[in-house]
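User: Let's play a game. I give you a shape written as tokens, and you guess the letters that built it. Ready? Here's round one.
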């Protein structure tokens, strides 16, 4: 049941590296940016990092999963936003300064965040695509029944398709003037 560490998916994740996880430390906080890439990955347990599986309608760790169990999946989306120079860590959202912040954030899309993004895609008649712009705001907390865990968050998301995202137009939609070396009437290649 373990993931193959030598799969194409594992290699792609390794080569792309990882950015800072998107966090919403309080109600009203916004994370936004241009979609760089996305992939599907199996969710892991917060405490043990053990892969999670569906056993009927409940989630279980790999150690108790059966042959009939299905992996619990999530969408991992990397976006490029403006550098903020900060992030938050742990369940208590401890503030952390990012001195070399490049503005890239990783969204782990599941549960309430998945619902908000699905609704935003539907409202925009959009699709998952590089170059689209996403804006996600934490709008409320959902009471937690487990006192050891932080309350879940409710979100509002908006989606702007790549063709309408001015910030991504040149880099994602190939509007560069250098694309065709023969454009200026040259008869031979420039190399």
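Assistant: Ready! My guess for every position:
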């Amino acid at each position: 049941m373990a993931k193959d560490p030598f799969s194409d998916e594992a290699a792609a994740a390794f080569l792309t590296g990882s950015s800072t996880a998107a966090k919403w430390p309080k109600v009203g906080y916004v994370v936004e940016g241009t979609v760089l890439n996305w992939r599907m990955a199996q969710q892991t347990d917060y405490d043990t990092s053990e892969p999670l599986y569906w056993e009927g309608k409940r989630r279980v760790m790999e150690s108790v999963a059966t042959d009939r169990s299905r992996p619990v999946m999530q969408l991992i989306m990397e976006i490029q936003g403006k550098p903020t120079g900060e992030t938050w860590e742990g369940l208590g959202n401890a503030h952390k300064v990012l001195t070399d912040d490049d503005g890239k954030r990783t969204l782990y899309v599941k549960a309430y965040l998945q619902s908000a993004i699905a609704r935003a895609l539907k409202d925009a008649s959009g699709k998952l695509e590089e170059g689209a712009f996403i804006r996600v705001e934490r709008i409320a907390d959902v009471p937690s029944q487990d006192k050891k865990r932080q309350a879940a968050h409710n979100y509002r998301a908006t989606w702007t398709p790549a063709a309408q995202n001015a910030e991504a137009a040149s880099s994602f939609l190939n509007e560069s003037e250098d694309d065709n070396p023969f454009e200026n009437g040259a008869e031979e290649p420039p190399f």
